[in-house]
Design goal:
This protein has about 1250 residues and is α+β, with helices and mostly antiparallel strands. It is built from 35 helices and 26 strands. The chain is about 50% helix and about 10% strand. Strands 4, 12, 13, 14, 15, 16, 17, 18 and 19 form a 9-stranded mixed beta sheet that branches. A 4-stranded antiparallel beta sheet has the order 23-24-25-26, sandwiched between helices.
Length: about 1250
């Protein structure tokens, strides 16, 4: 065992030694490899250091070259300036030479007769002609390789200055009339090739070979013009100046620098229009007809007018003369003469000429030059166009007999004639896919005109696109995409251009402004695209829906320069007016302007309202809300109409879609907002609002508002983008901007959640209430009350109650004057913690009682007259005729006053034996009856005033009530004048104010009293004038506590609400009216009240009782019925009756229950339509029982007479003497009707006029 262990250990030791050897070898190899790699890296590092040193040396050398080149460039610039001055001097010299030559020509003509040999004369004339230098020849316009020879010797002095409305500041487009060009015979046409090999081909084209399009193709070649000692770049910037201005160019380099360039034979390019047989030209057609011997173009004299720069802050980004952008808010210099714009650092280096501009009258910030109507040339006639009409058909906006229109029309015909000649019957110009730059350049030149490179810019004749501004090129690319999109094929684009001659007129300006509007015609369907990218199905669609301003137009008929049928080979023209001149469009422009201004105003008011909600009155806020609704509605209609129009003409509808989305979401949130505002102004709590709106709509409201903010922001950003991107801004663009701004401000200045809207509207409504108060004391008191009502629910209660106060100013002034405290609750007002009263019932204090009592006295006038007649003349009437006398007396009372006396005399004589009393006795009785009648009315008025005057003992208050009584009596007797009637109303308002003051004062003086019998007794005395049934019949909290205490003591319970009647807790949650009904029963019946109340409870719990006790009013009805039964018994049996019924047993109890059951059964037998008119069956049974003996003597009323005949007789609208409110706010109507010598009264409650009772008085 030990031997095996030793062997195993030895073997393992040998293995470990082998492994160690292997590790040592590997470590050695790894170290060798690292050393080798380090050596290689070191060598590579040294190589890099050497290369860096070489590159550093080369960089220093390049810096020296650059510095040398910069110095050389400065020297060349100075040389160019010197040569430019030399050109000016040469121009002046040539002018003087021409004057001398002209004088020599005149003398030569005089002596030509003395020259006998014709050859001698011809030689002299040739020498003179060759020596003559036309004005401007030395300083002729330098045209690039895209100019035509036809354009070199054009005299523009007779042409009106016409500028494209699409041109920006300093961008002028020339419309030449080539019919007046006098071509020199020695000039031959040339073309510059745009072929792929980029070489000049001097061979003539084949007869059927397609020729190059009159559009320059991008090329990197430089075309030079050879002169004796100078070379000029052929740069084009066709600028139309005033009549005395000519074209200009710059001298670039001298003859020595020209030799260093590649040897290219210079040539003056001329674009040859295709012949009549040619129908399609392409930019890729090989060039031909190159004539290297053509003479240079004429150079006109250079005007050196200086700029008049003023400092301005830039609001809209524009481009400097250095071709860099001037951003928003930066300071820059703008020329007052030509509106040229430059950086503050570019002012001294601005190389552009100062060319005066005239702002366009109706196309935004576009500059055009006013048409200088040149005198008509009577010898000129159009060669290629014809016009058969003098004015458009139908009703026109312009006066086509106006001299300005006539002059414009003559010049527009010249322009159209030139366009037709340039087009040369070419139906289409074809652009292939590789000619996209040529298409873009064609678009730029059609819209913006030609350009020459600015000094120091990257533009060159080989890169003509760079001569245009960046925003112009971007616009052209967008337009190119539209053209390619609507072409039949993107590989071969068929394009032609027609021009619409327009004349516009600015208000209060007698002159017209002319312009030439390019319209692109594409594909075989002849779709039209204007310079803004708006497409039209045909030329008729263009005429009816173009977006040009109000202008007169002259255009080729059917929108083509190559019509199928012509008159004498000429293109027919037609006159017209743009759609903007129509009455409907002008009316829409006016409305759009109003809406735009309204949108800005409402946006500002929205911001102001957000920070100062109480600044505007309720009427102003209503107007603002109505205006917002109108703007939103008009915006939706306008957006929908614009979408329909733009989709048909392939325009972006981005802004309109945003407006529609914003309007839809705003409308949805506006509906919920309107509901929340309505409920907030009605005084509803937020919980009540949520019950009506719902949680789902509450969540959707917040989401809709967020999306409305997003969409309206998108509409605003989109409209701003359109304003910035468009080269010509219209009212529609500003209108869309104003609508987007209005919608964004409208939603951002309003709370996003319904809770926020609810709280905001609460405060706004309360502030409006406070501002409407007429005195500072009232405003201060309301502010104090508002501070005490801090929560949302408390504010809702405050709004709910104050909305119902008739005179808030008086209300707050009385609170402040009496130092009262008023708390607004859900059910009404809590005054001094003494009484809970509805604001409607508060309004009725004093005035409603007076009106009701006064009308009742007026209604009782007939009864008082009846009573006085019976008292005086009853002595003359025999007993057997008294009934007849009383019945006929009813007719006398209805007669006029002047007839009553004679009719009464005849009646008394008729019914009295012996012819009646003597005249003296009758007159005395009549006078006594009238006196008694008037005294009776006066007594009732005095009693009414006395009840209202109770407690109102302030300075002058008694006199006010006395004067009110005097005026009321005069009104009662019908002798009050109109002035006295008006004074009566004013006096009633004063006395009402006195009574309301005492209402606050009577409870305020006891507000802090301790709860003890003595103080309670004083309080009862002070408030008695308000609690008695002859006045307001109010129920104070002390009366409520009396009822509660009586119930607890009578039934031995801790809580009166625990009393059970027929398994019902009828005293649970009693209202003020329930307490008032029980309080009057208990107060009237004093000590026997508890026994009667206990008996009523026993009866309600008695299974043998057929009545249903549901409310405290039913208990009160049973109690009063018990008192009626008790009062009908002899005095000796009344106490026994009380003792018996109090226990719910005994003979008296059973007899009463059976009698009452009989009456209830009789009531139940009545039709439902009668029972539904009353409050309850028990109330009907009680009131019938109580009043059946009061209508006539010894004959009680039957159930039908009480509930049908007499009830229908009293409860009529004409018998209403007053409408007031209960203490809880319910409606109460009072009725009165004369009933013999008595009056019949009745009462109903609620909107449905539920009958409570009626009885005679």
């Amino acid at each position: 065992m030990d031997i095996d262990t030793a062997a195993d250990f030895k073997a393992r030791l040998q293995n470990m030694i082998v492994y160690q050897d292997i590790l040592i070898k590997n470590n050695f190899l790894a170290q060798s490899s690292c050393d080798q790699e380090f050596s290689t890296l070191l060598i590579f590092h040294n190589d890099l250091r050497r290369k860096y040193a070489d590159l550093r040396a080369q960089t220093d050398q390049l810096d020296q070259y650059i510095e040398h080149y910069r110095a050389e460039s400065e020297r060349k610039d100075k040389k160019i300036q010197s040569q430019s001055s030399q050109i000016l001097r040469l121009t002046q010299h040539n002018k003087r030479n021409n004057e001398r030559l002209t004088e020599l020509q005149r003398w030569f003509d005089r002596i030509k007769d003395s020259i006998t040999e014709p050859s001698t004369y011809n030689k002299l004339y040739e020498i003179l002609r060759n020596s003559h230098m036309f004005e401007g020849e030395t300083t002729a316009n330098l045209s690039d390789r895209y100019c035509t020879g036809d354009e070199l010797d054009v005299d523009y002095s007779h042409m009106p200055k016409v500028v494209s409305q699409s041109a920006g500041i300093g961008e002028i487009k020339r419309l030449t009339d080539t019919n007046d060009i006098d071509l020199k015979l020695h000039k031959s046409p040339v073309n510059i090739s745009a072929a792929s090999d980029r070489n000049v081909n001097k061979n003539k084209p084949e007869p059927n070979q397609l020729r190059t399009s009159p559009i320059p193709v991008s090329s990197r070649k430089i075309n030079l013009i050879h002169t004796q000692s100078t070379v000029f770049f052929c740069l084009v910037e066709e600028l139309e100046l005033n009549i005395d201005d000519q074209f200009w160019s710059k001298l670039i380099d001298d003859h020595h620098e020209q030799k260093s360039l590649s040897p290219i034979n210079s040539a003056l390019p001329k674009l040859i229009s295709p012949t009549i047989e040619q129908k399609t030209l392409t930019p890729s057609t090989p060039a031909s007809n190159l004539n290297s011997n053509s003479s240079p173009s004429n150079i006109t004299k250079l005007h050196s007018r200086g700029h008049n720069f003023i400092s301005r802050n830039i609001l809209i980004p524009e481009t400097c003369c250095c071709l860099k952008r001037i951003h928003f808010g930066k300071s820059a210099y703008r020329c007052q003469g030509c509106n040229a714009l430059c950086h503050t650092g570019c002012k001294e280096n601005c190389t552009t000429l100062c060319l005066p501009n005239v702002k366009t009258p109706n196309r935004g910030a576009v500059d055009i030059i006013k048409v200088a109507m040149a005198p008509k040339d009577p010898e000129w006639t159009p060669k290629f166009v014809s016009l058969s009409e003098n004015c458009p058909e139908g009703r026109t906006y312009f006066d086509w007999n106006d001299k300005g229109i006539e002059e414009w029309k003559a010049n527009a015909i010249k322009f159209q004639d030139t366009h037709v000649k340039d087009n040369n019957r070419t139906e289409w110009f074809t652009y292939k896919s590789e000619d996209r730059d040529a298409l873009e350049l064609r678009i730029l030149m059609a819209i913006c005109g030609f350009r020459t490179p600015q000094e120091g810019s990257k533009a060159a004749p080989s890169c003509p696109l760079r001569t245009f501004k960046r925003d112009e090129r971007l616009h052209a690319r967008k337009l190119k995409k539209v053209i390619i999109k609507h072409s039949n094929s993107s590989e071969n684009i068929h394009l032609n251009i027609i021009y619409i001659s327009t004349a516009t007129k600015v208000e209060e300006d007698k002159q017209f402004y002319a312009s030439e509007e390019p319209v692109f015609v594409i594909n075989d369907h002849r779709k039209l695209i204007d310079k803004d990218g708006r497409t039209y199905a045909n030329f008729q669609d263009y005429k009816e829906n173009n977006k040009l301003p109000k202008a007169a137009t002259l255009a080729p008929k059917n929108g083509t320069y190559t019509p199928a049928q012509t008159i004498d080979g000429r293109v027919p023209l037609e006159l017209g007016e743009t759609p903007a001149t129509s009455l409907l469009k002008r009316a829409k422009d006016v409305v759009d302007t109003v809406v735009m201004v309204g949108g800005m105003v409402l946006a500002v008011t929205g911001v102001v309202t957000f920070f100062a909600p109480a600044l505007f009155s309720a009427t102003a806020m209503s107007v603002i809300q109505a205006g917002s609704f109108f703007l939103t509605t008009y915006g939706v209609v306008g957006a929908a109409t614009s979408i329909h129009d733009k989709t048909q003409h392939d325009e972006s509808i981005r802004t309109e879609v945003f407006v529609l989305i914003s309007s839809a979401l705003s409308t949805y949130s506006g509906i919920l907002r309107t509901q929340a505002i309505k409920y907030a102004r009605e005084g509803k709590t937020y919980a009540e609002v949520m019950e009506k709106i719902g949680k789902a709509q509450r969540a959707m409201f917040a989401v809709a508002n967020v999306f409305t903010i997003v969409s309206s922001s998108g509409a605003l950003i989109s409209s701003i983008f359109d304003l910035m991107a468009k080269r010509e801004r219209t009212w529609l663009d500003y209108y869309q901007f104003c609508m987007g701004l209005f919608m964004l401000v409208n939603v951002c200045t309003k709370p996003i959640t319904i809770k926020g809207i609810f709280d905001s509207e609460q405060m706004q409504h309360l502030n409006e209430m406070k501002n409407s108060l007429e005195s500072d004391d009232a405003k201060e008191e309301m502010s104090r009350m508002l501070a005490e009502h801090s929560t949302s629910d408390q504010k809702a209660y405050m709004i709910r109650n104050l909305n119902k106060i008739e005179n808030p100013t008086e209300f707050f002034e009385l609170i402040r004057k009496t130092r009262s405290t008023v708390t607004c609750t859900a059910d009404g007002l809590t005054v001094n913690n003494m009484i809970d009263i509805s604001p409607l019932s508060y309004n009725d204090i004093g005035k409603a009682v007076f009106i009701e009592k006064f009308n009742q006295i007026s209604k009782s006038e007939s009864a008082a007259l009846h009573s006085s007649f019976m008292d005086e003349f009853d002595q003359y009437i025999p007993d057997e005729n008294k009934e007849n006398f009383e019945s006929r007396l009813e007719n006398i009372k209805t007669l006029p006053v002047e007839q009553q006396r004679e009719t009464m005399r005849n009646l008394v004589n008729e019914l009295t034996a012996g012819g009646g009393p003597p005249q003296e006795a009758f007159d005395a009785s009549w006078n006594r009856a009238q006196t008694a009648y008037r005294d009776n009315l006066d007594q009732q008025v005095n009693e009414m005033i006395g009840h209202l005057q109770q407690g109102s003992t302030g300075p002058g208050q008694e006199d006010d009530f006395t004067q009110l009584g005097d005026l009321a009596r005069r009104q009662m007797h019908g002798v009050a004048t109109p002035e006295e009637q008006k004074e009566l109303q004013q006096q009633l308002d004063k006395c009402t104010n006195h009574r309301k003051e005492y209402f606050f004062k009577s409870s305020a003086i006891h507000r802090d009293d301790a709860n003890n019998p003595e103080n309670n007794a004083a309080l009862r005395v002070d408030i008695k004038t308000f609690t008695n049934a002859k006045n307001e019949r109010l129920c104070y909290r002390i009366n409520v506590e009396d009822v509660k205490q009586t119930l607890r003591n009578t039934f031995q319970v801790l809580n009166h609400e625990d009393i059970i009647v027929h398994d019902k807790r009828i005293f649970d949650n009693m209202k003020t009216g329930d307490y008032d009904r029980l309080n009057r029963v208990l107060t009237e019946y004093t000590t026997r009240g508890p026994n009667l109340l206990s008996a009523a409870i026993h009866l309600g719990n008695d299974p043998a009782f057929v009545g249903q006790v549901n409310t405290p009013h039913d208990i009160a009805s049973i109690t009063e019925a018990l008192e009626k039964q008790r009062a009908s018994l002899p005095r000796g049996q009344r106490q026994e009756f009380l003792n018996g019924i109090a226990t719910g047993t005994g003979e008296h109890y059973d007899r009463f229950r059976n009698d009452f059951n009989g009456r209830i059964n009789a009531i139940n037998a009545l039709p439902d339509d009668i029972k539904s008119q009353w409050s309850s069956t028990l109330s009907m049974a009680y009131h019938w029982w109580k009043h059946e003996d009061q209508f006539r003597t010894n004959q009680p009323l039957t159930i039908d007479e009480y509930f049908r005949e007499y009830s229908n007789n009293i409860f009529k609208t004409e018998n209403i003497i007053g409408t007031s409110h209960t203490q809880a706010g319910g409606i109460k109507q009072s009725y009165t009707r004369s009933f013999g010598a008595r009056i019949h009264v009745g009462f109903t409650f609620g909107e449905n006029r539920t009958k409570a009772s009626h009885f005679p008085k």
